[in-house]
Fold this sequence. Notes:
By secondary structure, this protein is of the alpha/beta class. Helices cover 38% and strands 12% of the residues. The chain is built from 13 helices and 13 strands.
Amino acid sequence: MNTPTPPHTLEDARELDRQDDLARFRDEFVIDDPDLIYLDGNSLGRLPKRTIARMREVIEKEWGGRLIRGWNEGWFTAPQRIGAKIAQLIGAQADEVILCDSTAVNFFKLVMAALEARPGRGKVVTDDLNFPSDLYILQGAIKLAGQDRRLHVVHSTDGLTVANDALAEGVDDDTALVTLTHTAFKSGYRYDMPAITEIAHRAGALMLWDLCHSVGAMPLALNEAGVDLAVGCTYKYLNGGPGSAAFLYIRRGLQERLVNPIWGWFGQRAQFDFGLNYQPAPGLKRFLTGTTATLSLAAVEPAVDLLLEAGVDRLRAKSVRQTEYLISLWEAWLEPLGVTLNSPRDANCRGSHVSLGHPDGLRIDRALIEDVHVVPDFRFPDNIRLGIAPLYTSYAEVYEAMSRFRRVMVERLYEKYPTERPEVV
Ligand SMILES: Cc1ncc(COP(=O)(O)O)c(C=O)c1O
């Protein structure tokens, strides 16, 4: 078959890297196999070198040397201190973000608090592009909250996007809460945060955004959009490490009115008085639960510092250029071979990953990893997700990855793999 002319050459890609004002940040990360092209920073970010030094310090000096005294020397205030830094990434004020627990647990806390804050309203609105864990938690929360609570799931008509109007139709004066994942985990569709928050508010409902696939890859303006509540993880574009602590955001004016459903001692007013009855701490601290995970929190801070140095506007500009570049290579090389674009074509409606589809997607994903050393990930039924982490992904890597992808297709390298799904993909 004829190989179509590539829109660029590897040398062009290298030239884009030379012109990239964020290129120096790549050296901040551990990259021990230069041949391995890692395009899964949207699932688990790379390890920053500074994190190794910080972890050594917190383990050897603080835990090893200072022992229990460490709590008064920075551990106790870490949720607020690091939360204040994350606030800068998402357009919030310093006292509106706190780092604790997992995304799932924080999501549960905020959903229960929101339902309690909107008594007499029965409906929670979400959509079927949302991350299933959020749906499970909503189902469980609604069962616990009882009364006539119910979940209204708006359906996507194309599997990639959900129109604002379709969401607006589902929201009414019986709606307590609207909650969505800002960048959809499969298609990478990026919702219009201000418009949808406005839809929720017009109906008198609260708005809760899951920022897992957005934070660290793009500027977010939660205050400007009037967002009430948000959660997000720190192990994707924030590079905080596997299972690192998550964050939650509550708009300042709402904090004193919300009740954490888990009444733990870290959320207690004057916690070391050890009073026998629960009294919520002022401000966001009431949304802490138990002892905070000091080591996990410590790993997040140097990684967030790196993002702040790079600047979210510059990161977004590079992410858009790189996803556009990737899509132009798909168009030239892979579309003619039957690979579909499972992400929005318009960069304004897209986050920082691109999903490519094929009926043999699972086997192609495996061949990419095992035969040609490109690491994307796979999401059922046919999505090969290629994540751009603008802090360390190079243009040469995007070029090389797509060129190797084409080789997998042309040489049918995937056909030797079984079609059955392994337990974890
Ligand atoms: C959008 C979204 N929300 C929630 C979660 C769950 O987060 P966790 O398992 O860290 O609680 C994930 C995990 O990938 C996610 O992608």
